Records
---
Amino acid sequence: MSTDSQAIGRPSTSRRAKDRVFRVGLLACVGISVLLLGVLLYDVVKDGVDRLNIDFITSFSSIDADQSGIQAALWGTIWVMGVCAIFIVPVGVATAIYLEEYADETKWFNRLIEVNIQNLAAVPSIVYGILGLAFLVRGPLSLGPVVLAGGLTLGLLVLPVVIIAGREAIRAVPPSIREGSMALGATQWQTIWKQVLPAAVPGIATGVILALSRAIGETAPLIVVGAATFIAFNPDGLASDFTAMPIQIFDWISRPSNDVNDYRPLAAAGILLLMILLIAMNSVAIWLRNRYEQKW
Amino acid sequence: MSEPVTEPRDKSGEETERGLSQRIGVHSGAASAVEDAPRFERGEREAIFRLEDVQVSYGPKPAVREVSFDIAENEITALIGPSGCGKSTLIRCLNRMNDLIPSARVEGRVLYHGQDLYGREVDAVEVRKRIGMVFQKPNPFPKSIYDNIAFGPRVLGMKGNMDEIVERALKQGALWDEVKDRLKTNAFGMSGGQQQRLCIARCLAVSPDVILMDEPCSALDPISTGKIEDLMMELKQEISIVIVTHNMQQAARVSDKTAYFTVELDDEEHRSGRVVEFDDTEKIFTNPSDSRTEAYVTGKVG
Amino acid sequence: MARSHFQEELAKLEVQALGGLDLVVGALDRAIETVQHQDVELAAMVISDDDRIDGRYLEVQQGILSLLALQAPVAGDLRIVAALLHVMKNIERMGDQCVNIAKLVPLAGHEPPADAQVLENIARMGAQARVQVIQCKQAFDRRDVALAQDLVRQDDEIDRLNREVFRLALEIGDDPDTREWAMHMMLIARCLERIGDNAVDIGEQTAFVVTGLFREFEDASHPELAPPSTA
């Protein structure tokens, strides 16, 4: 090789070594978190997988550990989630539409609303429980510790998630679509209802599912609101007493376990069921997003 | 001095049906003449737009000013000039799209068939029914081809068989043969040139009087551009077209009249545009009256 | 077809320009007739009718300018437009030659001493020029290069007849009236010969349109470059 035609050299060994150290370091971090999760998961699965069967789902809670099941809590969770969803979708989407399409950013109250929504998303969940207790269960509405109160409380908790996701989805619709619609003679409302919202639906739906999957695991607000810990019936209406899966799990863990009644496998099975529900919901959210996402 | 153009009236002086149907909202008085503006003599083609000393500002300073000329019916009128001269701003005045920008302010008068478009009784939505717009980047809706075309008629509550309306619009837009077998497929699957023709067909579906085109071909390849130019020549028999273009040769090829805008810097470095010359396209490109026009079209400037 | 408006305009312009050749044929026929019959009134008509050819020239000129400015033709279209400009000039010159012929007739007097042979040659030159004008129009219209090149051969005939008229005029004798008449005839022959040359020029433009190369078929300063004339 002559000195005139310099072939492109390879990086120096020290640079390559640093590069490799960096990559190994990153992998180690990932490995630690995956390992921790793996250990936890393994522990739960080991304890609970035997107990996870049809009997478990169809039985009510009982003192007798062998007879105990999660049915009341499962249906309670379903009812509460239903109320929550029915509440957050219209309110959240309407708020998002107002903030993105109608609100004049220069007006002070609009900026106030905007800042507060960001803050609300960060408030600890138990505060929402207290809020629900004070205004929904007692106070002005006096609903009592019922499904409706629990659903609305959780709804308030996760509403910011829906609003933020809704705003992102609406914002993602390019202004050219709105201009095209308005230029044809559509009013602003017609444009929103027939063009912007339909295009934003995948994003909004994803946001709603993510909100619900956060809500499904919330324990503290429901306890404060007054979800019962020991209930042996499914909810029969919005005004019904109820329990929820996280609470049932918490109850099983809190009881002392002995050789006669060992509640720990029940708790583990409950955790597994909850996780399966969560994974299912998230998978639906991801599938929805991938399938219907609009690439502009 | 030429007389102002009046609404179409029959021999007895009563307003014809056409005159009545051209009104939007309530009558707002006769137009006043502005000196030195290019006007049509009685007997020439009727003016569909009359601009009188129009000025548009997005803040304290004007973006475009001193615009006064007539746009004739069933003709293609081109607005040319360098970047920043306000041609897009001006064309958006003609269908009140500037209303969507809160800080935009329009002064002067914009008369459509003799009626002030910015009059208090005039509804912007009504204006846009009759004066359609095609944008620089094709913007089909994320729906099927059929639903794209049907959107306008549906939101406007147009009566009639929707299939027929869609077919008519696509035929008028020179797109029917290419898409008649795939009307239900998503519009995004079309090429750029087809998408732009879809946008034109979409406008045509609501039977407008005028179509405004803001640089409609600048994002397209030469073949698609040619197809759209041929389409424009066909459409002008039924519709009036106003086109903004930064491509002078396009203005030369398709338009009947051309307005040349220039950019001026004032003392505080603020740029604003104004009309330098408005005349038959042939005159502008063979023997313009103003030396600034000559400098621009020969490529020596801008 | 794309740019159909432009193609229509171009086709119309070509028809308008070539139509000028029909006007020339008419003018030529009448010019020859005035020579044959010494018809002074017909001569005046030929002169005034030239306005039509001049008018056609201006129309086509304006049309070409407009087409160039507005449509920016390129390649074959550009060659057609450029060629039409030349062709129109040639047509206008042909028209002027007919006027010149008509102007020379009254000068020849009412009862001129006419030499039959000279008159016959003039008549044949007139017929030949007519053939060449029609042929150059056909050649351009059909874009027929061979037909265009044949014009050179045709033109040889007119040139030969022109030289013959010159020779006859030289030998016509001493009578001053006759000599004066003969000189006028010579000038008329020259005009006809010029018409023939203009037709050849139009043929060159035809070749230019088709091949893109401009080459003079026959240049006075380079006779050796002429394509071989078929015997």
Note: The beta strands of chain B are 47-57, 62-72, 76-80, 105-112, 115-116, 131-134, 210-214, 240-244, 257-265, 271-280.
---
Amino acid sequence: MNGQFTNELLAFEDDHVWVNKNLETLLEQYADQWIAVKNGQVVASDPDLSGLLSKLPDPAHTCVQFITRDPLEMVL
Amino acid sequence: MIIRGRFIGDAPYFAVHLRSGYFQGLVWLLADTGASRTTILDRDVKLLGIPAEALEPALLPIVGIGGSVRSFLIRDIETALASEEGDVVIRQDLWIVQHDLGQLPPEEVSRILRLPSVMGRDLLNRFNFTCDYQAGIVRLER
């Protein structure tokens, strides 16, 4: 594969899947917090999204998720 | 050409790279055949750092996202997806929906910020879209 964005997109996908697969472990440390993940590692966390963004050098290219046990039922 | 998405839980997602003269970045989009337009919601507006000057008030009302919202349009965004052969780049308009978070209680703000942006039919219908949860397949093809 080649392209300007493909590798970055695939890594971004992998980080989202990693969060989902490791949710139980992440809940032990980051319950009800926003986390930022790069290359399968938590690089920052904060209870507040704005607080997290202030800790990130490049939030627009980072996987950001809220870690919680509370399900969010969506009918979009 | 195949663009593979991923299931998170039972929901199909695709990663896209957005670029305009005002911002660029990655967004994780929920594939939503119920949405007519691809729409960026509050969390991703913050993550992308979309400036107010990039936003053109939308003339069409948006129905389906609860609460008091403001809707905007950003024209001619470069949208890139990852296929097995490399980047697939499309240019299209994007919708932006912002809730008035300053007027809402914290628990409501928290729920709204968890809402994903959505890939609507304007983008999905440019491809053959397969979403087979039982087989674990989500993809765009053409």
Note: The CA atoms of residues 18 and 61 of chain B lie 24 Å apart.
